[in-house]
User: What shape does this take?
Amino acid sequence: MHNQDFFFQALIYLGAAVISVPIAKKMGLGSVLGYLLAGVIIGPFILGLVGNEADEVMHFAEFGVVLMLFVIGLELQPSLLWKMRKSIFGLGGLQVLITSVVIAAVAVLFGFRLNNAIAIGLILALSSTAIVIQTLTEKGLLRNVAGKSAFSVLLFQDMAVIPILALLPILATWGSNINLAESNLDKVTGVSSMPGWAQLLLIIGVIAAIIFIGRFIARHVFRLVAETGLHEIFTALGLLLVIGIALAMDAIGLSPALGTFIAGVVLAENEYRHELESTIDPFKGLLLGLFFISVGASINFNLFVEQPFKILVYVLLLIFLKFIVLFILGRIFKLRKGYDFLFAFLLAQSSEFSFVLISFSIQNQLFETQTAGILLLVVTLSMTISPLLLIFNDKAVRPILSRRENKQDFDEFDEINPVIIAGFGRFGLALGRFLLANKIQVTIIDSNPANVEILRKYGFKLFYGDVTRPQVLEKAGIEKAKMLILSMAEHEDALKIAKHVRKNYPRLRILARAKDIFHVFEFYKLHVRITQREMFNSATELGVKALVQLGFTRYEAYRAGRIFKHHEEQVLEELYSTWKEDEKEFIRETQRFSKQLSETLLTERNYTIHESDDAWDVDSARKESIESSSSKE
Amino acid sequence: MKRILVIFAHPAIQKSRINQQMIRALRGLEWVTVNDLYDNYPDFYIDVIKEQQLLMLHDIIVWHHPFYWYSCPSLLKEWFDLVLEHDFAYGKKGTSLEEKDAISVLTTGARKEVYSEKGRNRYTINQFLIPFQQSAALCKMNYLPPFVVHGSYTIPPEEINNYAEQYKKLILSLRDEKLDRKKINSVEYLNELIENNA
Assistant: This one.
């Protein structure tokens, strides 16, 4: 019976996730919001499929956050972490401090007692690691300037949880008649019987042990297990490691998330890192999803219905205050050009740690049940709203900013060059260097300000601007230019620009980087006939090197590569005519087309690739001379 | 009327003074095809089948190139190696080029006197051209005397055009079959026949 219950629960949670997340992603809402909505729908307020046990599920699922920090740690080499120390402690420290003070001050204005106000400030100052990191990963923003800053702040907050846990009981005794000695301070560390110095030693000892094991022992254990060839044992080991560390950290009163993060960083230079990452990843993803669902399910709508206006004001005020502090700090730490907004919107919610801290405060009799309930609701709602904030940023704030930039602090082009390169990432860089080396004057436009600044340092003349905007092209001197090279990675944008330019500047020559043959065909359709597939040449060149390693002579391999490339050009033309004919019913015809593609590939196999080098093959001449010499005899 | 295929090989046409003008003089002539090898095959990947088809469609084949190390630029040599296949150009079954005319058109930096027994190069142009002559013979083609522009380093700019015009005249008279066939094999260079005409 108990089992059935469990499976029924699993059915509901998994079902909700499988249904709602793809829909949310399709609608451009991101997976976090999908999970949260799924939670709301199955929660007591709408379908009532899950009830109070959602809380338990949430506690269980918090382990997903632990796993997430472990995986993040794995991707962060210690040296990288060291480089981030300024933003972790500067930006992160200031954020926690200032936000706490501001929120506490406002709470006092709302009539809370000072000790409660301080606690509220500390609790709400934290932001959700789970939501933010998940969003950053999903949008590929982890390496983005704003993403990195957000990550630093989250890291500091994770560390700050520990002193906050220690502070809350003190706040509880302060201004009330409960004696400090009778409070639950011991619960903070769980090693109550020890004196303070011994606890400190213990903490240092455990962390040192994690680092020692991670550095010197883990590798051998991983190898031993990997040699068994049993993948599930490796998985078991990975989970064992994380759970073990989490428990150890819990026992000495440190945040499990922080502990596993340290372990992750220690293992970041381990050769089994990727293996470990890919084993932990699915667990992490599922548990995080579960966590978000349970957050959604635990929203207490009854409380909300009782005083909707008040709650709404609290939530919006919270987000507003956090946003303002974050935005100002972001500006101080040199985030500009939209990254300041992104950074502030990313972190403007409260954290899953807030749940822990609130329930801990209840145990310490710091809050009344009513206050705690409202706080929980505010935190949950702020988390639910936060994905919407990012959508708001994408859809409303960014377009306005980029429009304004084009009018105001948009880079002025001080020269008109015959060639304009749009997009200066890895592809554009190689291309631009090549043209510059041949003394071709180029105007380079890139829409990533970080890129622009770095490359400017190396002496490239780069201009910041969004090429999809017609004004930018005008300013870059497209009217006088002879050629536009679309080297950007944004394939759809490239087509859009090509279309616009073809229409308005028909005499301009357009060259384009293409993603794949279909992208090439789209360009052909716009009469952009000079394209280069971004991967094709590099792949073939590596193939040539492979042939050499397989025993081909260097020249034979080189010729094979040449022949293949020329053959491919012909195939491309043939396929294009097929594609063009079928274009109208292309979706229906895709199957037929891909069949044709595979047929072409098959005939290619029979097409002797060395055919054109036959003259070097002296077989027929040799045969004839043997025949003629034998006939003379 | 004869169809003429000019197979032109110059790896740095943008730097040449004479060849550029000579080739330009041929552009647009009817029945004359200019096949610029370095333009068509910059990566030395020669489309053998297309080249063989071109050869079969023409009656007179001209190998036009600067004289490098007493021979042709490397891409033209590659062309010989790959296009003139056994069973296509030579061998028992290789009769595709039979009876066609072949001509070398050269430019040399040195003056004509240098290409003589007593000159620095010790041999005449026709002696150096023996490999081309014999290649044509192997393919059962008639190898005519060459058209040569000597002293390209020292030709004054105003004279360059004369050579280009002579070249054009040569090609036209070959096309229109106006050259005296009997005379052709008695001259050292085809230049003589054109100059006499003019």
About this structure: Chain A is about 70% helix and 5% strand. The beta strands of chain A are 419-422, 442-446, 462-464, 483-486, 509-514, 530-533. Residues 177-192, 606-610 of chain A have pLDDT under 50 and may be disordered.
